[in-house]
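Incident review: delayed structure delivery

Summary: a single-chain prediction request sat in the queue longer than the usual turnaround. Root cause was a stuck worker, restarted by the on-call engineer. No data loss occurred. The affected request and its eventual output are reproduced below so the record is complete for anyone auditing the incident later.

Affected input:
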Amino acid sequence: MKTRLLAFFIISLTVYSCTNYPSQSISTPTPIITPLLSPNLIPSIVVTSTPSSSSTPQISASSSVIIQNSSSSPTPTSLMSVQPTISPTPVFIPLPKTNNILFDTSVRPFKENNVNNISGLSKLTDILIKEKYNVLFNNFNNQDLDIIDTIIIVSPYLNYSVQDIEKLQKFLSQGKKIFILGEWGGYGGFNATGINKLLESANLRINEDVLKESQSTNYDFSDEQVLIKDFLKHPLTLGISVLSFYSTATIDIIDINKNNALILGQSSISSFKVMTNSKLGVIGASEYQNGKIIVLGDSSILLDNDTNSNSISNIDESDNTKFILNILKW
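Output delivered after worker restart:
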């Protein structure tokens, strides 16, 4: 009996100890909040490229957003005003197919080297623009001739090659126009021999000479600055009464038996070259195939220069401007 009581007592004591033993548990640590270093820093997402092939974006805190395209370097932009930047697309307006005039610079007019301009033509250029012409200065070999109506060749210094002449003849055969202005006796480097290779097909020739006038009523300032008053009736001479020429060369028809060329303007009977007195041509015109060629013995007629020192530019003298416009409209 005592033994049973002792066993019961031991069991009871064990159960009591277990139920009153302090319990242990796993606690979750309290989160620690670290404030941002600057109260003005606004978290945002910045996508940066990484050397690896992974496409996972890297996220960091920043006060700006970087917008980057594949062709430019990153440009910081305010987060509050991020807007796509649209670059304006350049608009290229092609030249119209009419009213385009090309001053050819390939043969070095007046021995100049500027391929984008010719000296002394600013007034003429302004006049042509006012008349709704588009004026270009360029080597004709570098120009799309399909859109050109008239090529103007001013006092050429270099020769045209055989290929150049063939190209210009083809230009004429398309119903277009070439306007040539020479100089007297090689003045300013003018190369009559070279340009005559082109003029030959038009049955015209410019001479390496100088025209003088013996009557003072037929010249201005000097006997080489002749006034042309004798004109053949023609669309080019419509409304023209006087033209002022400055030391001009003379123009001839090569074969008078052909009817494709005309001398439209002549000096007076008192003019001369060397020792002869006769009327001498200074303006020639020819219809070559479907095209037209006009040649003057004087290029100074269209310049800004005041050759006779009367405070009037050559282009503004007499009917010079009107005559140039008649040529372009013919």
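Verification: The two ends are 151 Å apart (CA to CA).
Action items: add queue-age alerting; document worker restart procedure.
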